[in-house]
Amino acid sequence: MKMIRDWLDHAACRDADPELFFTVGYDAQAMQDREEAKAYCRRCRVRAQCLDLADQTDVEDGLWGDTEKDKRRPPTRGDLTEMFYSRTKLLPGGHLEWTGFFTKRRCPVLRAGTKNLSAYRVAFRLCHGREPEGHVTSRCGQRGCVEPSHMQDSVTRAQPAA
């Protein structure tokens, strides 16, 4: 683990918003976010180690070493549902508090082995059964809530309220 931490300390993206590296879709915002993430990668001196980590751990989502998932080897999927719910706590009002790992910017992250997945994106997939497009936010406004039914992406945010 020490070796991984050594090169991670030199990553250009170490203080960046992790959601930039998990952009899905091709709308204007997604393309802008993807380019911003790639700019971090282009100036990173540990890009090869990042890509190696993604390949060695079967990371399926995101931009790693300036390489998107369709350019890497095929992913494998573990039981994210169980891992996700084991790191949450039910709160009054139907909210779920994240009890797992957080980035420096307080973004909830699900660590699956050495993989880091956005808890917001995992929650969205659990509820909607598809990959989210653009940034994932919580429609309830409760800070840190990861309740899957509260997650929305750029597509669901653009839909009129029922």
Give a topology summary.
Layout lengths: L1 H7 L19 H15 L4 H10 L23 H6 L2 E4 L3 E4 L2 E2 L5 E5 L2 E4 H10 L8 E2 L12 E2 L1 H5 L4
Antiparallel strand pairs: 1-2, 3-4, 4-5, 6-7
Integer average pLDDT: 82
The Cα radius of gyration reads 16 Å
Order of helices and strands: HHHHEEEEEHEEH
Percent helix, as a range, is 25-40%
Percent of residues in β-strands: 5-15%
The profile of the biggest β sheet is: 3 strands, antiparallel
Distance between the termini: 48 Å
Kindly give the count of domains.
Answer: 1
Pick out the low-confidence regions. Answer: none
**Shape, per Cα inertia axes:** globular
Strand order, main sheet: write it out.
3-4-5
Q: Counting H and I runs of at least 4 residues, what is the number of helices?
A: 6
Q: Please state the structural category.
A: alpha+beta
Number of strands: 7
Pfam family, one: Whib
Protein name: Transcriptional regulator WhiB
Keywords: 4Fe-4S, Cytoplasm, Disulfide bond, DNA-binding, Iron, Iron-sulfur, Metal-binding, Transcription, Transcription regulation
Subcellular location: Cytoplasm
Please provide a written account of the structure.
The chain is an alpha+beta fold. It has one domain. About 35% of the residues lie in helices and about 15% in strands. It has six helices and seven strands. A hairpin with a 2-residue loop joins strand 4 and strand 5. The chain is globular. The N and C termini lie far apart (about 50 Å). The mean pLDDT is about 80.
